[in-house]
Automatic annotation (TrEMBL), chain A:
Domain Clp1 N-terminal: 30-125
Main localization, broad class: nucleus
Pfam families: Clp1, CLP1_N, CLP1_P
Chain ranges of the Clp1 C-terminal domain: 350-454
Gene Ontology CC: mRNA cleavage factor complex
Location in the cell: Nucleus
A biological process from GO: mRNA 3'-end processing
Protein name: Polynucleotide 5'-hydroxyl-kinase GRC3
Physiological role: Required for endonucleolytic cleavage during polyadenylation-dependent pre-mRNA 3'-end formation. Polynucleotide 5'-kinase involved in rRNA processing.
Record key words, sorted: ATP-binding, mRNA processing, Nucleotide-binding, Nucleus
Organism taxonomic ancestry: Eukaryota, Fungi, Dikarya, Ascomycota, Pezizomycotina
HAMAP family on file: Clp1
Keyword Acetylation: no
Subunit structure: Component of a pre-mRNA cleavage factor complex. Interacts directly with PCF11.
TrEMBL record, chain B:
Region described as Disordered: 155-252, 367-403, 651-679
Stretches with biased composition (Polar residues): 195-238
Protein's organism: Anthostomella pinea
GO molecular function annotations of the record: mRNA binding; RNA polymerase II complex binding
Pfam families (UniProt xref): CID (PF04818), Pcf11_C (PF21936), Pfc11_Clp1_ID (PF11526)
Protein name from the UniProt record: Uu.00g071950.m01.CDS01
Signal peptide: none
Domain named CID: residues: 6-144
InterPro entries: CID_dom, ENTH_VHS, PCF11-like, Pcf11_C, Pcf11_CID, Pcf11_Clp1-ID
SUPFAM superfamilies recorded: ENTH/VHS domain
Amino acid sequence: MSIPGLGQIAPTAVQTTTSAAVSPTTTQSLEPFWEYRFEVAHGSTLNIKLVSGTAEKDGTELAPSTPYAFTATKTRINTWHGCTLEISSEPGAVYDAYTSEPTADETPMVSYVNLHFKLDGLRATAERTGQMGPRVLVIGPPNSGKTSLVRMLTGWATRVGRQPLVVNADCREGMLALPGTLSAAVFATIIDPTSEWGSTPSSGPSPVPVKLPLAYYYGMASPDDNPRFFKRLLSRLAVASTSRLTEDPGVKTSGMLIDSGGVNAKGGYDHIAHIVAEFSVNIVLVVGSERVGSEMQKRFAGQQTSLGETITVVGLDKSGGVVERDAGFMQQVREAAIREYFFGSSKTTLSPFTQQMDFAALSMWKVNQAPTASDEDSYSEAIEKAEPSLMMQNCTLAVMYATVHDTAETIRDSNVMGFVYVAEVDEKRRKLKVLAPVSARLGDRPLLWGSWPEPMVSLVG
Amino acid sequence: MTSYSESEAVAEDFREALEDVNTNDRHEISNLTLIARENTEHALAISGALVDHIKRIAPHKKLPSLYVLDSIVKNVGTPYTLFFGRKLYHTFMDAYAMVDMGTRRKMDEMLKTWKEPVPGSIDTRPVFPPDVVRPIENALIKVRTTALQQHQAHMKSQQQLLGRGRPTAQGMPYRETPTPPGARPPPQAHGYQLPNHSTNGMSYGQPTQPLPPNYQSHPNMPFPSRSTPQPMPSSSAFQPPPVGGYGMSQAGISTGSLNDDIQRLITAFKAQIAQAPHDPTIQTRLKALVDLQTILQTQNLPQDQLVLVKNQISDLAVTIRASPAQPPTPIPKAQPVAVAPPPPAAAPKVSLDSLFGSGALAALMARSSSTPQVSTPQPPPATVATRSPPPQRAEPQKAAAATPDPMALMNMLRQAGMLPPPTPAVATTPVPISTPVPVPTPSLPFPIPLPIPGATMGNQSRRPVTMETFTGDIALKASSLKQFRPQLLPFLFEAQGPQCTQCGRRFARDEKGKRKKTAHMDWHFKVNQRIAEAEKRGQHRSWLVDEVDWINTRETIDKDHAGHPGDSDAASGGSASKAAKVEYIPVPDDAALAASVCPICQDRFETRWLDDAQEFVWADAMKVGERIYHASCHREATKDGGNTPMVFARSTPEPVLGKRKAEQDELSSVRGKMKTEFA
Ligand SMILES: [Zn+2]
Ligand SMILES: [Zn+2]
């Protein structure tokens, strides 16, 4: 792929891998368009403070002279005006950092921010005419920076007073909910720069306003595991999102930003078309793949949304710094999400509760894989009753907004109330020990058991 | 339904037809007007094509195209007036900046007629509403005033320099064929004006209408009405009238010599790039130079700022000499750079917009809106009359009401890294370029200072006006998106006001912004207070809300929630008392209890996120024993009995069996509604 402006050469990247033991505090100066890219290991913390200039992390501006503690992350801080950062870490902290030094012609950030301004123009038009703001879907191959782009567009939108409804249609990763869910949330306030998406409500106050997600449980890693179920949940999410959008004026003008899972090489465009249709997507952003871009162009050329708008497909370069995040790292990220759900972060410590439950008192359902299911029958069996077993040990179950008396269909279509973690299964005494976020009994809420996120051994012990 | 491609095709035809309009040929103009009239459904595309054309074509060809615009708005009217109106300021001012004096006069005349109704039309409204025309007028008045003042100042103090200056016109290709006003066939100002404004009465080629008297009068025109060809140095877009045959050369530093220097440097840098094509530093500097050149050619900069520019150029000259990659030939001073004007194709580059992106001029002007000489306030939008209801018209461009302020311009340059930060005392003597100042590398000043406080864009009018206007040129295409538009960045930064030191959010400096900031700081304060308390108490993750509650949730931003639950109790509960304001309970953690309904009315409780308490609460709820009631229901049921047991005066009997049923009915009805409406 050609680099805009200068052809063949890649943005200058100066490797400055830092050995934390040598210099705990360093100063990093960035010129306009440069980025400070860093990876911090699990268990290590990197503190970054903006000393002068302006700086952003995924569209959210850093406050001046305020230390931000990053842990277990691969991310970057960019600047439009130039800045000086003060970087410090505990001795022995493991992290890797370098500056990327592109020019305005080289950085895809220019396209991204222009996109934001264009969207904000469209939102202004929507505001004036009482129409719906743009519904934007971001797709692309894995590791092309889709989520980062969605987060950037979200951050910029809230900065200018918009309230976009952000949808996560990527079941592999969670947004304000655990992996395996599809979720949506309105972002009206800033995202904590040290987090992916911020945190969900807890019983105590949060220094950064919490975001309230609506989540549906899919419980599998790939849309291909049960395509019909996946699409069904997307439709549920679309109905609820559209309702919110229609009834909430600030959200209506701001529109939607939809993050999708990576499109794989052998197609997988089927659920993309479904998202476009269900969410009335009118702008499709294709990041980092001209091939996928032209596929999408072909697919949606001449098509219109349910509102009669033309569907526009836009190709975007991926950020040069998007690194392949290996499977091990991603698993650590998922485990960190589960840990944070129950125990909170370094900023806010949460205390979950353990409960003993009789098998008999439980309404347990298993999410089934059905990769080739195409008929309504196998689809309605997307979930089936399951007897608690040792298989569930170390698994995270979804607590559903339904009752044990509801039909399988109702339970399947319900949204997620929360999660419990199965700490211990005693098949002899037919008892289950779970970790729950709150102390009260679960009552007659059905629990759904899927294969994603994968069992996590080290949560309690 | 109008398809995009159809519009594109029509616009393409229109564009081709436009290419043929090189003179003020009445027939061609009429023909294009007819096309526009017959294709009003493609008005957006057509107007876009025309505006682009005006922007793109060589200065000496701009006038005919402007006449096309003029003809369309007068003979067709809406929707063209709306579409042109949005960009009229840029269209007009950009063209004005580039054309010669004669054309400027024609444009002045044209502008005047836009303030009037179409002659002979029954429509008494002006061609363009005042809010579209006035910013242009204001800008022109400012230009003339500045020009006049500079001229007078010059006359007073610099008489000895008479004749010394030289008209420099580098990079101004249209000087190649100096076209004195009147040398061209007279365009018969508005002679092509179609006599009948109504649809069926288009009689092309009819004798021209007598011009309204005001067409010829120009009370505001300080330009001397000279009939002789004017050797105008057009290097400055808004420049004073030429007097005595000399151009812009003023006291101290002459823009002309600066231009020469810059041109030499540009040539030198280009040579360097040929040697090291991938050195981004050189690219950056070259761009800075080209931009600088443009600024010089299009703006009148005061002396002290010219000194800054000059210093900057000297610095750059040093680097290019010191540069190891320096090619043998291009030594700045020594090399006589081709002074020949570039090919005409380069002409459109002169406009600020073509360098900084569309809207740059307006952005600059918006920045300078704090300068005192802003003219009379805009009339209220109510006086704006549109000729036909939809589409909605663009709001008045408040941002454009002011005129270019060199200070703002310099700030923008500084922000873009082209100029150093303001220096306290500036030498009044120019630094000769032959005396290299020992400054190391004039790389981008770092960190680049943000613009001066108070020079922010009008926060009040930031939306919806500005975003639509300012982003109008961005197309959802890779090529358009890749173009850096520094003029838009302030919308994310300084235009939003200063940052909250705790979280980095920005708050405008105006009254509304101050109120928001106060509420925001209160929020920080309360939350910080509560965090300390919560840590002692112990915290846990909350359950999420269900679909219906989520849909009904509204985000709250730094709202002061004292009494918030009570506010809507007043709406639902009837007896809104102060007591009711605190009647909420945290949503029960107990999942079974969380599903309960009010025993009195069988309704569910309204879940709200109480920002102040940072938790979910049930509004208008109270716990009596182990049961939860609506506070209002409970009050109603017990108001005359005190301790008497509940008297359920509900029409629904079966309170026990009906509970689950009522809840489910409600849920399914909402879901049903969602399905029918949005599925
Ligand atoms: Zn704050
Ligand atoms: Zn009640």
